[in-house]
Give the backbone structure.
Amino acid sequence: MNSTMPAIEAENISKIYRLGVKLKRDENIVSSIGRMLKSPISNYKKYRSLYKFEDVDQSKREDTEDILWALKNVSFKLDHGEVVGLIGHNGAGKSTLLKVISRITPPSHGHINMRGRVASLLEVGTGFHPELTGRENVYLNGTVLGMSRREIDSKFDEIVAFSEVEDFLDTPVKRYSSGMRVRLAFSVAAHLEPEILIVDEVLAVGDASFQNKCLSKMEDVGGAGRTVMFVSHNMAAVTRLCKRGLLIGHGQLLMDGSMHKVVDAYLHDGHGTSSSKEWDGDGPQGEYAELKSVRVIDQKGEVSDVFDIRETVSLEVTFNVSKTGRQLLPHFHVFNQEGIHLFPLLAPAEYRGDSFHSTGEHIYVAKIPGNYLAEGMHYVTCSLMTMSPDRAQFVADQVIGFQVVDSDELDTVRAGWGGKLRGAVRPMFAWEKLS
């Protein structure tokens, strides 16, 4: 195999599907009898039309009542050893693209070159025969991948140990739970040394500890010079694992770049919670003030959706005071992706004085230090209260959001450890060795 050539090379890949069209209702018995007599011919034409697209104007690449363009002119190249994340909203075309790459379905147009053995894990128990035992399926999958029995024997104990299904190895796979099938299927795909490993969202079926094992294993696979394409809606997982990302939307490749930038574009484009919200005279308001904008700012002073766990996250609020006479207290509330209220951020006492009595625009920023939040999505509620009496001027509930991405660097709480870290926050406290 020539390592100078791309591992995967897709050129103008398109995939067309024929959709079912709603049948017309018969108005009377005569038309019903006529339809029955014509059924054999019409059914044959319908069946043939599912795979023939002579009637489709293929230059327009447009969906119609009975035609869906699942992929439209998708082109990219993946080098050997690259670990690439593929993201996009539901129905964007991710799974269709993986099926084309895995040669489960052919493209309608374009072509794809694969250089190396491919192992795909696209759904629970991919490639498993339900009547065969786990042991038999390991050898079956290995044979399909082109492995010799000796090669499979050399990896067998490692596969079983990783999958943690030793007690059920000689049980038919049809009696496995979905989690057990995922464990064994991933273990086989990752350990039988394919040059290209393709993994869909199927890992979400497994428990948290096994998902982390899989992520670490895929890192090892990429480090060994093999190519990994990983699809997930877990932005923390893809950014931890992948350096490069592909963003798919409406069957088209929208972006190809660094994983952090691709995730930022995905979240900012309305597929997730935006990190910036602005109002032009129509924002939440009360008797004394009106909300103008809420933003998440990075260390460069720019709006950002994604932050390394070590970065400072700045929350900025801009509001307009229309009436004087009350002290005003701006504050934020930060929630994690499970809806847990992590903490409030209230403006300190020195910012609640005379400066809030003047009319006009006021901007305040609260800073969350690096190595404090845990990885994952976070959502921010912004509000403004009057003091004495305490009344809300406005409350913008979970109006913005941002993603925190962990890393294995030594200057984080994880400090190079790849296992699961629990907890709603992840502050980096001081340690001291006394003896």
